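Recap from last week: sequence in, structure out.
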Amino acid sequence: MLRELLRSLTRALPIVAGVAGPIVIASFALLAWAGVAPMKAVTLPWRSGASLWLVQAMLAAWPLWALRRRLLPEAWCVQLRCLPFTTRALWGSDVAVSAVVLAPLAGLYALSVAVFALHRPPWWLQAMPWALASLAGSWIASCLIGAGALAWQRRSVGVRAQRTMRAQSPEVLLAARPGAFAALLWWPAWRDALTPGARGLIAGVVAAIALAAAWTQGWWPIVPGAAWALMFSMLAIALTERLQRTMESHLAALAPWLASLPASGGWRWRARVAICAPMLVAGAAAVLLVVASRPWRAGPLMAFALGLVAAPAAMTSVPSAHREAHVALWAVCTGLLTAFGSELWN
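Predicted structure tokens:
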């Protein structure tokens, strides 16, 4: 039976190779693109090349920033302060950990060099020595940036521990007590107790503003204005809808506790304003970019600005538990904002 199974597998090998071969080759081709940006940077003008090189190095170091709390838990950071390690030894360990984490990236860079050495494109042959140096320097810079992220994690834990150990009088503690809005909404969001947290929302708003800048300044004329308006509107509305769901679940968990406290309800309307804030900030930036760019049409711009204010207000007036109503609002608001945004210029 085993012999028959091996014989059938042997007969199936050409079929498997014919089906999986192109997929494997395409995968290798995609992996080879990992090192294109640092090598291509040396062929560009120095400003564009330096920007591309720096962006690649920072993106490659992002896993270390994202994993810094798992690589260096707070308990370890506190214990490290009790051990007789020098600053140089700690930095060396951070660089070693960064190099180990980014070792797969080094393998991808080596694969990229092998693929380009095999195919020998003209631009790569002309810039070959500097391209290899740029690629190696990009990986080293990513390791150093990752080591900086680990050092930041270690130092921040030490600073928080020192602040906790400081003896403060009851009067100082009462004076520093946060208000209801900060205690219930702001600090949980900033300390990543909510999902998405404040940092994720800030990143989303920055991405929406970047889309608005690319749209209004015409950086890629090949992309039509309606497509830019659609991407901007969908991202802004998605931030609002996701924040509303998170905020409602957070407040529902706090409702029994809040009912037993003599606290005012002023923080509730602040919570609604906080839900609308990402879309309002991104929308205000988009409107300002439109006004500062090419000649615009007043009617569509006013309708677009009113839509950016009315969309989050309408979404927050309907609880996120009503999924059908929220999906309908999402579709209607996205369609209207896309239509108004596509008519901003003649």
